[in-house]
């Protein structure tokens, strides 16, 4: 390995170093050279994990805490001017600058060019490519791609909203020629948006994600790239990113359908990757697993599939609780955001339990956490807005405030919940009840007044539930009620659902506790 690196560093085999390259710290040039070697030549997982996961963050903190990394041109000599690596480097350093600064509109538009350059290199050279990137690195690229699209949509909507407020936009959408000095920055931003109509265009954004879905998995593969694990990673995480963006745009069914490659090929072994399956790859990148679970849970909730949403969010919350206990999550990049995301999902689970009481769906530790944190407050709540912890929905139409619209739509849906819970509380007290008496409980003058509520409760609790082997968008229609009732003449008959005694939860919890104890014992230094 050292002889190979020495040969590559032979000045005769590399382009001449620029003056800016000479000024770079040696630690920086060595890092770039080693990173290029790990991507294109050695392709060693352990080496790349250290370079990307540790060294890049340390160098960023030491030299570039408040300034951008050197341009790709200034480090080209360290990678023989490889266009693919230069595009990868540009994206990596642009992502860093986006995180440590307050990006301007110009920075956001430039971000689109960064990702276009990288994705064009990846897709156009797929047949002859030979490189390796960690699954976590690939996810970071695609996750940031989605994040910057979301950010650009929000900024663009804010600019146009402010312009309309100040009278800078005519009815036909044209920018007004007159403006005050105080509005000059707003006019500049409008002009910049008018001059970059293709920046972060939704069709192009989804076009790139769809193109990645044709690489790396069995029936979708064309060409020799099928043997490169990196293209399988791009396929997997492009599906996750597409699902996330569909959710942000309010197309919840498409969000679930986008995950089909992941569910269909979950047990597919990725070539040249030590027989790692698609499912193993997702589990190896916790941030990806978390993103998929959260946006899938939100989509299921908005589609009124409460039980499936609770299963998805409950499973990831149980995993996170174990990770917090063992300290494993604190070691992962982005761990400072995990607690916030956990609290958001717990709020959604509390809401789901309130809407659709369910027994045996959630892990007992998660259910206890919900009761302790949200139980009393949720029972007394007059509004559910605080518990609706959705992502920031965006729109490609600058005239539509989609986040507010979707939130209001959900809250209107929740207005029926109080009446349904009230009805359920009465039905659970009786095995049979005269309709007239039930109507009086609800302050209805005539028995007929309660019939729409009885029918509405039946309809609202009939849900699509996912079966084993189904995609997230598939399932079987089932009754999600924990009680069953029917009417014969003027009497409501009630059959409470049989309660299943879940002994396995007791044993699961004890096994987990024992595992936690063994892990703690393993960390104890017994050397005398």
Helix share bin: 55-70%
Q: Tell me the overall shape.
A: globular
| DSSP strand count | 5
Structural class: mainly alpha
Secondary-structure map with pairings?
Layout (H helix, E strand, L loop, with lengths): L1 H7 L10 H4 L3 H15 L4 H19 L19 H18 L4 H20 L10 H31 L18 H12 L6 H11 L16 H20 L3 H6 L2 H5 L13 H7 L1 H17 L3 H21 L8 H21 L8 H17 L21 H26 L4 E3 H7 L9 H10 L1 E4 L10 E4 L3 E6 L2 E6 L6 H20 L6
Q: Could you characterize the architecture of this molecule?
A:
This protein has 528 residues and is mainly α. The chain has 21 helices and five strands. It has helices at residues 2-8, 19-22, 26-40, 45-63, 83-100, 105-124, 135-165, 184-195, 202-212, 229-248, 252-257, 260-264, 278-284, 286-302, 306-326, 335-355, 364-380, 402-427, 435-441, 451-460, 503-522; strands at 432-434, 462-465, 476-479, 483-488, 491-496. A three-stranded antiparallel β-sheet has the order 1-5-4. Helix 7 packs parallel to helix 10 (229-248). The longest helix has 31 residues, at 135-165. The protein is globular, with a radius of gyration of 28 Å. The two termini are 40 Å apart. The relative contact order is 0.06. The model is unreliable at 1-22 and 220-226 (pLDDT under 50).
């Amino acid at each position: 390995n050292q002889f190979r690196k020495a040969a590559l560093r032979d000045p005769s085999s590399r382009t001449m170093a620029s003056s800016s390259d000479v000024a770079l710290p040696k630690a920086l040039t060595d890092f770039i050279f080693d990173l290029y070697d790990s991507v294109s030549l050695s392709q060693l997982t352990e080496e790349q994990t250290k370079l990307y996961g540790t060294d890049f963050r340390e160098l960023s903190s030491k030299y570039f805490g408040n300034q951008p990394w050197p341009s790709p041109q200034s480090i080209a000599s360290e990678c023989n001017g490889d266009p693919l690596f230069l595009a990868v480097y540009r994206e990596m350093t642009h992502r860093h600058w986006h995180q440590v600064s307050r990006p301007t509109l110009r920075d956001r538009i430039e971000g689109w060019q960064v990702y276009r350059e990288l994705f064009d290199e990846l897709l156009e050279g797929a047949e002859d490519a030979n490189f390796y990137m960690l699954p976590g690195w690939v996810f970071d690229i695609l996750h940031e791609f989605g994040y910057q699209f979301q950010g650009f949509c929000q900024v663009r909507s804010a600019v146009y909203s402010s312009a309309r407020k100040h009278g800078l936009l005519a009815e036909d959408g044209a920018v007004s020629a007159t403006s005050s000095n105080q509005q000059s920055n707003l006019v500049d931003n409008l002009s910049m948006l008018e001059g970059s109509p293709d920046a972060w265009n939704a069709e192009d954004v989804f076009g790139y994600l769809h193109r990645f879905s044709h690489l790396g998995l069995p029936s979708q593969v064309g060409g020799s790239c099928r043997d490169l694990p990196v293209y399988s990673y791009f396929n997997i995480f492009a599906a996750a990113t597409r699902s996330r963006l569909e959710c942000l745009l309010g197309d919840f069914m498409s969000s679930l359908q986008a995950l089909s490659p992941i569910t269909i090929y979950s047990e597919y072994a990725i070539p040249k990757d030590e027989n790692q399956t698609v499912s193993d790859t997702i589990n190896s990148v916790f941030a990806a697993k978390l993103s998929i679970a959260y946006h899938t849970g939100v989509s299921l909730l908005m589609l009124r599939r409460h039980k499936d949403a609770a299963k998805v969010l409950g499973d990831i919350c149980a995993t996170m609780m174990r990770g917090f206990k063992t300290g494993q999550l604190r070691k992962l990049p982005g761990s400072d955001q995990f607690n916030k995301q956990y609290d958001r999902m717990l709020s959604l689970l509390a809401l789901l339990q309130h809407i659709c009481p369910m027994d045996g769906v959630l892990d007992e530790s998660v259910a206890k956490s919900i009761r302790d944190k949200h139980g009393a407050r949720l029972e007394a709540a007059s509004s559910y807005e605080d518990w609706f912890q959705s992502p920031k929905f965006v729109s490609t139409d600058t005239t539509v405030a989609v986040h507010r619209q979707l939130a209001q739509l959900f809250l209107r849906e929740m207005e029926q919940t109080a009446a349904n819970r009230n009805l359920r509380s009465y039905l659970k007290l009786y095995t049979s009840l005269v309709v007239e008496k039930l109507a009086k409980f609800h302050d209805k003058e005539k028995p007929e007044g309660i019939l729409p509520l009885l029918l509405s409760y039946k309809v609202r609790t009939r849900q699509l539930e996912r079966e084993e082997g189904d995609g997230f968008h598939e399932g079987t229609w089932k009754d999600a009620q924990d009680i069953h009732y029917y009417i014969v003449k003027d009497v409501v008959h009630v059959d409470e659902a049989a309660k299943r005694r879940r002994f396995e939860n007791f044993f699961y919890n004890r096994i987990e506790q024992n595992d936690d104890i063994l892990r703690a014992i393993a960390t104890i230094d017994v050397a005398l």
